[in-house]
Amino acid sequence: MKIFACSHCRHTVFFENVQCLNCQKELGYFPERGMLALPQEGLSKCRNYTEHNVCNWLTRQVGDYCRACRLNRTIPDLSLAGNLQRWWRLEMAKKRLVFSLIELQLPLDDLQFDFLVPGAQPVLTGYSNGLITINAGEADDPTREKMRVDMNEPYRTLLGHFRHESAHHYWTVLVKDLPAFRQVFGDERQDYQQCLDRHYREGPLPDWREQGFISAYASMHPWEDWAESWAHYLHMRDTLQTSSEFGLGRLDTQTFDDMIQDWSRLTFALNSINRSMGISDLYPFVLGKPVLEKLRWIHHLLEGHQR
Q1: For strand 44-45 and strand 34-37, is the pairing parallel, antiparallel, or unpaired?
Q2: What is the SS3 assignment for 159?
Q3: Cα(11)–Cα(24) distance, rounded to whole angstroms?
Q4: CA separation for the pair 50, 92 (Å, rounded)
Q5: How far apart are alpha carbons 259 and 299 in whole angstroms?
Q6: Taking the chain (307 residues) in consecutive chunks of 10 residues, what is each chunk's mean pLDDT?
Q7: Among 9, 131, 169, 253, which residue's Cβ finds the most Cβ atoms within 10 Å?
Q8: Nearest to 17 by CA among 1, 80, 244, 32
Q9: 134 burial type by CB count under 10 A (0-12 exposed, 13-18 middle, 19+ buried)
């Protein structure tokens, strides 16, 4: 993620800011132009900005939804207490995903989101035919943390969900029927439901790290190995972009090996800082050689797409 500045006074602002704390100007984000002080000729606030204040993006049409909010198919029922706050947290995570997808020049066509709050029926986060469903209950930190512990996961965030589920969509866009995929991730034609049932019945492969998976869940099926690796690549790219904005690394024109070198230094530093504060590691992963080759494959795939 880039570091932004108010277009009026150049004061540093966060991606989520709706007002500059220095000059007090209202702010709006427009993908082609960055963070803009309002008003801006030819641009208007997203409808979800003016009506609900859950968005800070701009659009060219008055009363229209922004590029990111147009992707929403279902939002939480705002008549119920707490759902507006849940939706805001979901939107902030989704906006960071969309920012990355736009930077990578990936198409947003045929991609939609359902944000569903569990009720009488449970809600499963997942993907199907262009639709990403997110369990909005996980916008509550205690709920998400309980699920993280129950499922023995070292890392579980809303942004992580968005990145993981987006991988399934872009597999159909970028990867489907590429023979090279199977050489790196395995044969995705094996029965997914059988693999899923076995995973939850017997648990992950006991030696999943040694077999070259980034997470236990990645060992379930090649599609999930791809999704976990894709999400991880987006984590790395976005975090390295942020660190480069502070002069702590490179991003532009760097090779994959440069990227991994910077990532290793950065995560060692971040984990060391966390341990000095008595906090769990920010980055609880180990990148073995097979995992690095999967990330390298994704890196070159995206480079080829952009070319």
Answers
A1: unpaired
A2: helix
A3: 11
A4: 16
A5: 10
A6: 92 95 96 94 96 96 95 96 96 97 94 93 92 95 89 88 96 90 93 93 89 93 96 95 84 82 93 95 90 96 82
A7: 169
A8: 1
A9: buried
